[in-house]
Amino acid sequence: MAGFDFYEALAVDNSKTWWTAHKDTYDVAVKQPFVDLLAELEGEFGEGKVFRPYRDVRFSKEKTPYKDHQGAFVGVEDGMGWYVQVSASGLMVAGGWYSSAPKQLARYRDAVDSPLVVELEKWLRQQHAKLSASNQVAKAIAYSLNGWSGLTRFLDDGRLCMSNNAAERALRCVAVGRHNWTFAGDRTKADGAPRPSTR
């Protein structure tokens, strides 16, 4: 049984019983070829890592106990490297950046995003100058330019997201609750309901 066949069969019965019965096949047809490949390429790419086949179901919506693929990674620098994966759908090889420290992300943004942001600001100011102050597009551009320092703060701090989606998701419960508290049943319940979110 080859690696592709192994994962096709696993897709049909992703259970501990099946895995235990075919663990030797995994070791021979899947894991060992990865170990051999990394050993052969180590001189050119550096030491690699074969990932565990077990899924961490604590933090995953997918609750099957075993991953539907086998992957291996060779790091080049922090958060950057080469990745190879085999699954029922075939072989995938990729290279790139999968994770970063805030300082590393800030350097990347400075090199890649900053020039684009400068050009964007220049373009927005040019377009704004061509429009009437009462024009709706002009108002939208002015709104962006008036808050430009906050809009571009992510360039200076790698801990910040480019958008405020995370903050909006965190506040969603308050917005939904505010609507629901209107129908609390009586004044006492309505007064008490918002308190947990304001502490």
What does this structure look like?
By secondary structure, the protein is of the alpha+beta class. It folds into 2 domains: 3-97, no CATH class; 102-198, no CATH class. It is 53% helix and 14% strand. It is built from 8 helices and 4 strands. It has helices at residues 3-12, 16-21, 23-45, 102-130, 136-146, 148-151, 165-180, 187-192; strands spanning 48-50, 69-77, 80-87, 90-97. It has a 4-stranded antiparallel beta sheet with strand order 1-2-3-4. The protein is flat and about 70 Å long. The N and C termini lie far apart (58 Å).
* Oligomer type: single chain
Q: What structural class do the secondary elements suggest?
A: alpha+beta
Question: How many beta-strand elements?
Answer: 4
Tell me the β content.
5-15%
Count the DSSP helices. 8
Molecular shape: flat
Distance between the termini: 58 Å
Number of domains: 2
Helical percentage:
40-55%
Unreliable stretches: none
Largest sheet: 4 strands, antiparallel
Output the helix-strand order: HHHEEEEHHHHH
Mean pLDDT: 87
